[in-house]
Design brief:
single chain, two-stranded antiparallel sheet, 202 residues, mainly alpha
């Protein structure tokens, strides 16, 4: 099957050159086994099409004419790498993908600054980079808030279970594994809540 103009527009020229037959019309590899070089080339193209263009596995499979299961495997590979590099406990995949796209955009803009001699264009590009950095920081901030909410929710659930099962102990936080008696737990919570009320009134 030959590629349409739309498909050729999205697929990188390097990938096309590496995967054409002698007539220059068909992709050679529609399934494995792949050599190490072929696998790396394919994964790189899958990364570009998914994270830069936002294409789904089905769309990528149609564009580069490679089995969808292979594409899904490549996406799983990249998601695992991104999660591993992010060092964020139990991250939401959607958030990690957005962060990765921000990073890609930032790198592209930074490279463009080195290519231009126009002062006005440099200012514009630097402003765009600043906006991306702000979005990245905001995303990390919200992710931290989400993690805190989940930890507090877990502590509340654990304490409710302990109370239902008549355990004379409560946890202040599941993260630090700090446990107290029920009486002490209530006293600490009262101090914290009173302090919060006082802070709001200042």
């Amino acid at each position: 099957m030959e590629n349409s103009d739309e498909s050729m527009f999205s697929v990188s020229e390097d990938f096309i050159d590496e995967n054409q037959d002698q007539c220059g019309r068909h992709f050679i590899k529609k399934g494995g086994p792949y050599t190490k070089k072929e696998a790396e080339s394919r994964r790189t193209e899958v990364y570009r099409l998914h994270f830069e263009y936002g294409y789904s596995a089905r769309k990528i499979s149609d564009l580069i004419q490679i089995n969808r299961n292979t594409i899904n495997g490549d996406l799983h590979y990249w998601y695992s790498k991104i999660v591993e590099q992010s060092k964020i406990p139990n991250p939401e995949i959607a958030i990690i993908v957005n962060l990765q796209r921000f990073e890609i955009q930032r790198i592209r803009l930074r490279e463009q600054i080195d290519k231009t001699n126009s002062f006005q264009e440099k200012i514009l590009l630097e402003r765009l980079i600043y906006e991306i950095d702000s979005k990245i920081l905001y995303t990390y901030h919200r992710l931290g808030e989400s993690t805190t909410r989940m930890m507090n929710f877990s502590t509340e659930r654990l304490n409710a279970w302990l109370k239902r099962n008549h355990h004379d102990v409560q946890y202040m936080t599941t993260f630090d594994k700090i446990s107290t008696s029920v009486k002490t737990h209530n006293r600490i919570n009262k101090i914290i809540n009173d302090d919060k009320k006082q802070a709001r009134s200042i």
